[in-house]
Amino acid sequence: MTVVDPIFIDTNILVFATIPGSPFHRPAIQALHGIAQSGSVGWISRQVIREYLVQLTRPGILPIPLSLTDLPGQINALQRIYQVANETPQVTLELLGFIQNGLAAGKQIHDANIVATCIAYKIPRLLTHNMADFKRYSSVLHIETL
């Protein structure tokens, strides 16, 4: 059996998979199913969980908002399905390297932290809908998009 490299799943993919009315819902669902069927280990991080909660609790994002009592179940499901990377000193060290090398500043630090997490946890692939935000890291990470 062929071993498939682990893949980090960006917040936008999870949000699109949660919103049936999104034009990206079906591709997001297909991508997540593809990961599961491939035998690859899917990863998210505490940052992704926070960003996901931000999106799901913002008015106007979901056509029918999840109730606040549904959110813990949603997060627990994500934590069962995916490996969860924690913020570690190694992640911070990698992030500081990107900042010192001029690859991240301001809002770019959020995306740089995802890449730093991938490097620290040896996750060579990233699935995102925002290729433009991550293309500067293509020399250290394989970026996949919907």
Describe the protein.
The protein is α/β, with parallel strands linked by helices and 146 residues long. Helices cover 51% and strands 12% of the residues. The protein has a five-stranded parallel sheet, with helices on both faces. Helix 7 links the parallel strand 4 and strand 5. The longest helix has 14 residues. It starts with 6 loop residues before the first strand and ends with a strand.
Keywords:
single chain; 7 helices; five-stranded parallel sheet; alpha/beta; globular; 146 residues
The sequence of SSEs as H and E is EHHEHHEHHEHE
In the sheet with the most strands, the strands line up as 3-2-1-4-5
For the termini, the CA-CA separation is 26 Å
| Low-pLDDT stretches | none
The profile of the biggest β sheet is: 5 strands, parallel
Strand content: 5-15%
Q: How many whole angstroms does the radius of gyration measure?
A: 15 Å
Task: Figure out the total of helices.
Answer: 7
Oligomer: single chain
The coarse overall form would be: globular
Structural class: alpha/beta
Total number of β-strand segments? 5
Average predicted confidence as pLDDT: 93
Q: Roughly what percent helix?
A: 40-55%
Quick recap:
By secondary structure, this protein is α/β, with parallel strands linked by helices. The protein has helices at residues 11-18, 25-38, 46-57, 71-81, 89-100, 108-120, 131-134, and strands spanning 7-9, 42-45, 83-85, 125-128, 142-145.
Topology:
Blueprint lengths: L6 E3 L1 H8 L6 H14 L3 E4 H12 L13 H11 L1 E3 L3 H12 L7 H13 L4 E4 L2 H4 L7 E4 L1
Parallel strand pairs: 1-2, 1-4, 2-3, 4-5
